[in-house]
Design a protein that fits this description.
There is one protein chain. By secondary structure, this protein is mainly α. It has one domain (13-156): Serine Threonine Protein Phosphatase 5, Tetratricopeptide repeat. It contains 6 helices and no strands. The protein has helices at residues 3-28, 30-64, 68-86, 91-106, 110-128, 133-156. It is elongated, with a radius of gyration of 27 Å.
């Protein structure tokens, strides 16, 4: 073997090591891992997007035009789609649950709204903590709907 081939082989070996070291560092980099997690989340949101944006707009439209029963029905479908795509504890799922509970109350089911908001507040506390603003908001909304339910039942007597 000539000395040129030996030098070429040595340079190639050193080059391969130099290329492999930065690649390994990039793969072990915590920022790269975070990027991968964000990519997973973005894929989930892209999965969710086509199926649910139309439902969300339809529910809002029905609510604004006074068809609260229709808005509740569509919001239930929206919630099911979001849970499928994002999981039970995703912030958008928790927000959808809050909106659905309030729609139920506006549609005349104050007790159902209060119960749903109490369950939501427990989940919010588990996920975000007791002092998280939306945990507190959910608790207050539950109290408001319980008051509405009790006022409505007293008026019926």
């Amino acid at each position: 073997m000539s000395w040129r081939w030996m030098i070429t082989g040595a340079v190639a070996a050193v080059g391969a090591v130099l290329v492999a070291v930065p690649v390994k560092r990039v793969l072990d980099n915590p920022f790269r891992q975070a990027e991968r997690e964000l990519d997973k989340r973005d894929r989930a949101l892209r999965e969710e997007h086509p199926d649910t944006v139309a439902l969300r707009h339809r529910a809002h439209y029905l609510s604004e035009t006074g068809d609260l029963a229709g808005a509740v029905e569509i919001s239930e479908q929206l919630l099911a789609e979001r849970v499928r795509a994002l999981g039970e504890d995703h912030p958008q799922v928790l927000t959808t649950r809050h909106n659905l509970a309030n729609l139920r109350g506006r549609a005349g089911d104050a007790a159902g709204a209060a119960e749903a908001l109490e369950r939501l507040a427990l989940d919010m506390e588990r996920v975000h903590g007791a002092d998280f603003i939306y945990t507190v908001v959910s608790r207050r909304a539950a109290v408001r709907w319980w008051e509405e339910a009790e006022g409505g039942s007293q008026g019926a007597e």
